[in-house]
TrEMBL record:
Family statement drawn from the similarity comment of this UniProt entry: Belongs to the metallo-beta-lactamase superfamily.
The entry's keywords: Hydrolase, Metal-binding, Zinc
Domain Metallo-beta-lactamase, first and last residues per copy: 44-243
Cofactor entry: Zn(2+)
Oxidoreductase among keywords: no
PANTHER family named among the record's database cross-references: METALLO-HYDROLASE RV2300C-RELATED, QUORUM-QUENCHING LACTONASE YTNP-RELATED-RELATED
Protein name per its UniProtKB record: Glyoxylase-like metal-dependent hydrolase (Beta-lactamase superfamily II)
UniProt xrefs under InterPro entries: MBL_superfamily_lactonases, Metallo-B-lactamas, RibonucZ/Hydroxyglut_hydro
Keyword Oxidoreductase: no
């Protein structure tokens, strides 16, 4: 909770590592992988931004039923995790949805007062002709898409185009690639501009090697997103992927008992993420 001397809002950013899949192998993550059977853990995060009394939630984590169906483990119930941070979900007024995959929108109903924000392009994508194709619909759950339709018709889902400022110090930016409406979130912190890349980067490795993740709608947009992320973040150490186990290892715990579960990515990493 801090405000810079010139009254620019700065946020604390809590990355919540709520799930994991230790059975994942590299061949599931990377196209043309030379060691496809080598293990590569996939972790699951969502994020909470806090500045004073102001709270913005970025994605909502995965529902345990969907986790089970897709073979992932829940480490910390995403909604219960908020209470560890002193955040009552029923009081949250702003929730950004970076895209509509099941591991990001599993708890919409935990936020009864919230206004949700998402790319208009994502809504068109998940209710349009590409969903006829199993490849493109495989990370969406129709009951959750139906909830988005209900929220839209209740006036609680705002659909934006490309770039939008959500609050002073928080903006969202379309990149596409992973899905048609994938966006990233730029957040002002005491250490500068941090970019929550969400699934524009699952692992740091994509960014470092300039390679796409295997779950893709459009490979050219996915690769171009790396440049957009670099434009918006103060350095590569200010970039936060959505599924990399290294995040919990690099960044300080948000408090006692939260080690390896909730970390502060508005603070500097313990070692440079660029020198791994
Ligand atoms: Zn994801």
């Amino acid at each position: 909770m801090s405000e810079a001397s010139d009254n620019r809002t700065e946020y604390e950013i809590f990355a919540i590592r709520y799930g994991t899949n230790a059975r994942r192998v590299r061949g599931q993550n990377f196209i043309l992988e030379t060691q496809p059977d080598e293990p590569q853990v996939l972790d699951f995060y969502y994020w909470v931004l806090k500045s004073g009394e102001s709270v913005i939630v970025v994605d909502t984590g995965m529902h345990p039923d969907k986790a089970e169906r897709h073979g992932h483990g829940i480490l910390l119930h995403p909604v219960e995790a908020l209470r560890h941070l002193g955040v009552a979900p029923e009081g949250v007024e702003t929730v950004i949805l970076t895209h509509a995959h099941y591991d990001h929108i599993g708890h919409l109903d935990a936020f009864p007062k919230a206004q949700f924000f998402m790319q208009a392009r994502e809504m068109a994508y998940v209710t349009g002709p590409w969903m006829e194709k199993p490849w493109f619909r495989r990370a969406y759950e129709p009951d959750e898409i139906a909830r988005l339709v209900h929220l839209l018709h209740a006036g609680r889902l705002a659909l934006h185009g490309l770039d939008r400022t959500i609050a002073d110090g928080v903006s969202v930016h379309w990149v596409g690639g992973h899905c048609d409406g994938q966006e990233i979130v730029r957040v002002r912190t005491a250490r500068g501009w941090v970019v929550l890349a969400s699934d524009a980067l699952h692992y740091y490795e994509e960014y470092e090697r300039g390679v796409p993740f295997a779950v893709a709608f459009n490979l050219s947009d996915m690769i171009a997103a790396h440049d957009r992320i670099r434009e918006l973040a103060d350095s590569d150490d200010h970039v936060i992927p959505a599924h990399d186990p290294r995040i919990a290892a690099f960044y300080p715990a948000a408090g006692p008992g939260l080690e390896d579960r909730v970390v502060r990515v508005d603070l500097a990493p313990a070692s440079s993420t660029e020198s791994r």
